[in-house]
Design goal:
Largest sheet: none
Number of domains: 1
Strand content: under 5%
Shape: rod-shaped
Low-confidence stretches: none
Number of helices: 2
Helix content: over 70%
Length: about 150
């Protein structure tokens, strides 16, 4: 029995049961139902093949979509990693700038703390001078401010 005969479940001519009719009638009447059954199987097989072909095409399309989506996601991940590296570089640069500014602030505070006592002494001297001048001025002409 061949592969096709076994797939279609075809029995060889000699093993098929015979009708009790003469040879001519046997072929015309006994073969017809068998032919119809084979045609039905062929139709079913073709339908199954068509469905399988459509399923294969659908699966191939879905696979292509999934591969495209995977590639897009890999690109997004690579972009995010690159952005993370750039962000890390920027963060490091900004932290260094912040550190430099903090050092400058400390330097200015130190310089200011050195200047403040001198400035306070100068302001105090100016206040004393002004107070002395006002006292001296009032002592010379008190009548101007009493009116």
């Amino acid at each position: 029995m061949t592969l096709i005969e076994s797939a279609l479940n075809i029995q060889p001519e000699k093993s098929r049961p015979r009708c009790g009719l003469p040879e001519f009638t046997h072929r015309s009447t006994c073969a017809y139902p068998r032919i119809q059954a084979l045609r039905g199987r062929i139709t079913n097989t073709r339908s199954a093949l068509s469905v399988s072909s459509l399923s294969k095409h659908g699966a191939a399309t879905e696979l292509e979509d999934l591969l495209r989506t995977r590639t897009e996601l890999e690109c997004v991940i690579a972009d995010l990693e690159l952005a993370g590296e750039k962000g890390e570089t920027q963060r490091t640069t900004i932290q260094q700038d912040l550190h430099n500014i903090q050092m400058r602030i400390e330097d200015v505070k130190t310089a200011l703390s050195e200047v403040v006592p001198e400035w306070e002494a100068h302001v105090g001297a100016e206040k004393e001078e002004r107070a002395r001048c006002v006292t001296h001025y009032f002592s010379r002409s008190p009548h101007l401010f009493l009116s």
